[in-house]
Amino acid sequence: MPVLIYLMLGAAAGYLGARAMGFRSDPVTVLALGGLGALAAVMGLRLAAGVAQTGATAAAAVGGALAVLWLWRVLVERR
Fold first, then answer.
1. What is the Cα–Cα distance from 66 to 41, expressed in whole angstroms?
2. Tens of pLDDT, residues 36-58
3. Please, are residues 28 and 55 in contact by the beta-carbon 8 Å criterion?
4. Are 38 and 13 in contact, with CB atoms under 8 Å apart?
5. CA 50/CA 17 separation, integer angstroms
6. To 10 degrees, what angle do helices 2-21 and 27-49 make?
7. Which of these, 75, 71, 73, 47, lies nearest to 60 by C-alpha position?
8. CA of 24: how far to CAs of 7, 20, 27, 30, 55, in Å?
9. Which keywords accompany this UniProt record (predicted)?
10. Where are the chain's structural domains?
11. pTM for this model (two decimals)
12. Nearest to 33 by CA among 11, 59, 16
């Protein structure tokens, strides 16, 4: 169940972050990148630090979503 929550949180953060950054891609790509970034950040935080607190993992999910969107924009869309 927490995985679905992090996916939804990451998708929402990805969507809002993409609009704030002027990221002009289709919504499916933005939502998928946000969700994947959130899952990667949460799993990385849990593996590296052993943190399972809700606030820390939620912050990691949002940060991971925004980081993946930024990387996508820098590496793929600027070609």
1. 10
2. 889 888 888 888 877 777 788 88
3. no
4. yes
5. 27
6. 120
7. 47
8. 21, 10, 9, 9, 30
9. Membrane, Transmembrane, Transmembrane helix
10. 2-77
11. 0.81
12. 11
Can you read off the two tokens belonging to residue 15?
Answer: 């969507």
* Alpha carbon 37 to chain centroid, angstroms: 4
The CA distance from 67 to 43, in Å, is 15
User: What per-residue confidence (pLDDT) applies to 79?
Assistant: 63
Measured in residues, the chain has a length of 79
Instruction: Give the C-alpha separation, 28 to 36, whole Å.
Output: 12
